[in-house]
Specification:
- The protein is mainly β.
- About 0% of the residues lie in helices and about 55% in strands.
- Strands 6, 8, 10, 12, 14, 16, 18, 20, 21, 23 and 24 form an eleven-stranded parallel sheet that branches.
- The two termini are about 50 Å apart.
């Protein structure tokens, strides 16, 4: 109990894996206010201490707060991320999972729930970390304009140059497409087939509409980079937060894959797969999604 002149209060404690909160309330006996028929004044206090770890920023961030395996590296996955961490916001007992067949190297591993990883992983994974805020949560969506194409498909052996703008009904690349710099608003699914070639510097894809998402198939030749400045600098894929939640985006690369930019799918899943060599030409590929 807390006792002071004219005050008695019993504090209440709330302890979790990531924080400790102390609250106390009571009434203080008044002096001059008694003549106004106010014998007591209610007072309260609250203090919270949160466990925090200083460290590098996330290179992969799973935003979902509850599901099992919000962030999982499995099969023959090989992942190297220098100077950044893998972080899962899920409170699940299987929040972040790295199986024994995956070869993973990063600056750290952190889970809001529990991490299930090989015992020889270095540095050791941390469980019960504080969830991280979505770093792009306040980024405004680009505004759609009049459709410059509807249900557009670049056919096999066709060679085209595309301009930024709004593509209604999705965009499918089966041939060769060179993209001029700018924002490509895709109302529908962006599909790059296994025999396609797509190239563009200073571009961003904003994925919206009922079937919003992207599928980049293994075998495609991909050379894409985000703008290096401006409002959307560093972002290559940006999913409309309200469009097609739960969709599984596929990034299937190979040795002909060259990408530079973030994948941001806050209410969708991102699956990264591919043939050997996909890692060698991906110098900057942060992934922030509901699940990875």
């Amino acid at each position: 109990a807390i006792r002071s002149e004219g005050l008695t209060a019993t504090p209440a404690f709330s302890i979790t894996n990531t924080s400790a909160t102390v609250t106390a309330s009571g009434q203080v006996e008044t002096s001059l206010l008694k003549v106004l028929q106010v014998p007591h004044i209610s007072v309260a206090s609250r203090a919270k201490a949160v466990k925090a770890f200083e460290g590098p920023p996330p290179c992969i961030l799973a935003l979902n707060r509850s599901v099992d395996k919000a962030l999982i590296l499995t099969g023959g996955a090989q992942y190297v991320a220098e100077g950044c961490v893998l972080h899962s916001n899920s409170s699940s007992s299987l929040s972040l999972v790295v199986d024994n067949n995956a070869a993973v190297q990063a600056g750290g591993y952190c889970a809001a729930g529990k991490a299930s990883v090989p015992t020889n992983l270095t540095p050791p994974a941390r469980s019960y970390c504080e969830p991280l805020d979505d770093p792009f949560r306040n980024l405004p969506a680009p505004l759609a304009s009049t459709c410059i194409a509807t249900n557009m498909e670049v056919a096999p052996k066709q060679i085209v140059t595309l301009d930024p703008g709004t593509y209604c009904g999705g965009l499918t690349i089966k041939g060769t497409a060179t993209l001029n710099p700018g924002v490509y608003i895709i109302s529908g699914l962006l599909t790059v087939s296994s025999q396609a070639t797509i190239k563009g510097a200073g571009v961003m894809f904003y994925l919206t509409g009922a079937s919003a998402g992207f599928t980049l198939q293994a075998g495609a030749t991909i050379d894409l980079s985000a703008a290096t400045s401006g409002q959307y600098g560093g972002i290559l894929f940006f999913q409309d937060r309200l469009a097609n939640p739960g969709f599984v985006n596929l990034f299937a690369g190979n040795s002909d894959t060259k990408v530079f930019g973030s994948i941001y799918a806050p209410t969708q899943k991102v699956r990264v797969a591919g043939t050997s060599g996909v890692n060698q030409d991906v110098p900057f590929l942060p992934i922030i999604a509901d699940q990875i």
